[in-house]
Write a structure and sequence with these properties.
Blueprint: H1 12-25, H2 34-40, H3 46-55, H4 66-85, H5 95-104, E1 110-112, H6 117-128, E2 138-140, H7 153-162, E3 171-173, H8 176-184, E4 189-192, E5 207-209
Parallel strand pairs: 1-2, 3-4, 4-5
Helix pairs in contact: 1-4, 3-4, 4-6
Length: 225
């Protein structure tokens, strides 16, 4: 069960750029630098991130309605799709090979993420081809559940569709929020450290690695990972 942003690809810088271009387009006096965006990533979901940032401003902040946030986020999502559609954002080392190995081993694959379906499609169609979704038995996005990570809702949904016990599955994540979400659903977790989250506390993970290129040949059959 793959997370997407940070796990399958280092997408966060593309998200940050798209957010800033959306703010500029709508004449908002905001520009998120790396440090600011790193903190905001602890808030799951783009719309939620915008609202959290707006609410953190001083009391004289301008009005920002839900419809305006939705408009901002739609623009941001389109711009993100254009950026990754240019081919500038490749998959992280080992991800494509791991998908092939899993499929060859007749393992079932899922995507469990808080990002939108449009964002998933923009990234994976570019990197895995137009039929990318045939690799995955289940795709759960942030739009499919009432509560995003670190709540376990997305993992519960994926496990229900797969019809498998959590302990027989493996979640691949890059953040503490993802770890908590998967572990709360009962799934063991492999952490692959990413740019923004590499120094988080991963206590409770079954294994932690820098990327997915150094997994042993017997990885899928080792209960201790």
């Amino acid at each position: 069960m793959f997370d997407v942003d940070g796990t399958m690809a280092e997408t966060e810088e593309f998200h940050r750029r798209a957010f800033n271009e959306a703010f500029s387009h709508f004449d908002l006096p905001w520009s998120w630098d790396v440090a600011t965006y790193g903190k905001l990533l602890r808030i799951a979901g783009g719309r939620e991130r915008i609202r959290y940032f707006w609410e953190s401003l001083s009391e004289d902040r301008f009005d920002l309605s839900d419809s305006r946030i939705n408009e901002l986020h739609r623009f941001k999502t389109r711009r993100y799709a254009e950026l990754v559609g240019s081919g500038a954002c490749g998959l992280r080392p080992g991800v494509a090979d791991l998908i092939v190995r899993a499929r060859d081993g007749r393992l079932r694959l899922a995507i469990v993420t808080t990002t939108s379906r449009d964002n998933i499609g923009a990234l994976l169609s570019q990197n895995l081809g137009p039929d990318w979704n045939r690799n995955f038995d289940v795709i759960v996005s942030g739009e499919d559940v009432p509560n995003k990570k670190p709540a376990p809702d997305a993992y519960h949904t994926a496990l229900d569709v797969l019809g498998l016990p959590a302990v027989s599955c493996l979640a691949i994540e890059d953040s503490r929020n993802g770890l908590v979400a998967a572990a709360s659903a009962g799934a063991p977790v492999l952490i692959t450290r990413s740019l923004y989250f590499r120094d988080e506390d991963f206590t409770g993970a079954s294994s932690v690695t820098d990327d997915l290129t150094d997994l042993p040949d017997n990885f899928w059959f080792d209960p201790d990972l």
